[in-house]
Amino acid sequence: MTPANNPATLFDFYAETLAQTQPFDGQYPRPWMTDLTDPLDANCFIVGKNQRNRYPVGAVDHVRHVNALFNRNGESCRALYEELCEPSPTRKNTDRLSGKLKAAGARVLETNVICFSSPMSSDLTRIQKQKGSAIFEWLLARLQPKVIIVHGEGAARALSKVATGKAIIIRMPSLAPPAYQKWHFESEKIMNETVSAATAALA
């Protein structure tokens, strides 16, 4: 059996996710967004620097948060996000890229090199960066995606310091403002080129 089809492995991964997302500095770490019911089945990561919107402790039960990450027991990643957060401009841009990738057959998981929320990555403390980076490295080692699409110079620099195994790295400009505004007029072309490169790598 492959790991993605092994119920015992999925059960173990769920338990690991519970451990990795324990409350820290007033929020639950948010390691990914996906519509997959088995995140282990992902073969393509979209990776940014870190996410803006936080899940405050007290706003949601921990088990409900993890159920949403696995799109199970009546919960979903997206529904919980929209309940707790105002979708950011970055989220809307990522949705567009993710939709194109999924339409081309990729099994997408969206994450960040620092899986911890702050308005700006510069707002993160050293310990928050360490915690968020450790979660990403655990996720990367556990899922071993075939393709990683990294957007933005900061995310690309941070990713270059992480062991990515045999993953094919595809770089693209940042999906987050204000950097996105510098290339938004070319966004359709650049996104389509990125999807074509990812599709070829996944073939």
- CA(first)-CA(last) distance: 21 Å
Helicity, in percent?
A: 40-55%
Determine Rg (CA atoms, Å): 16 Å
**What is the H/E order?**
HEHHHEHEHEH
Structure in a nutshell:
The protein has 203 residues and is an alpha/beta fold. 42% of the residues lie in helices and 12% in strands. It contains 7 helices and 4 strands, in the order αβαααβαβαβα.
List keywords for this structure.
single chain; 203 residues; alpha/beta; four-stranded parallel beta sheet; 12% strand; globular; disordered N terminus
Describe this structure in words.
With 203 residues, the protein is of the alpha/beta class. Helices cover 42% and strands 12% of the residues. The protein is built from 7 helices and 4 strands. The protein has helices at 7-20, 62-69, 77-84, 89-103, 126-143, 153-159, 187-202, and strands spanning 44-50, 108-114, 147-151, 168-172. The protein has a 4-stranded parallel sheet. Helix 2 packs across helix 3 (77-84). The chain starts with 6 loop residues before the first helix and ends with a helix. Residues 1-5 have low confidence and may be disordered.
Describe the secondary structure blueprint for this structure.
Blueprint: H1 7-20, E1 44-50, H2 62-69, H3 77-84, H4 89-103, E2 108-114, H5 126-143, E3 147-151, H6 153-159, E4 168-172, H7 187-202
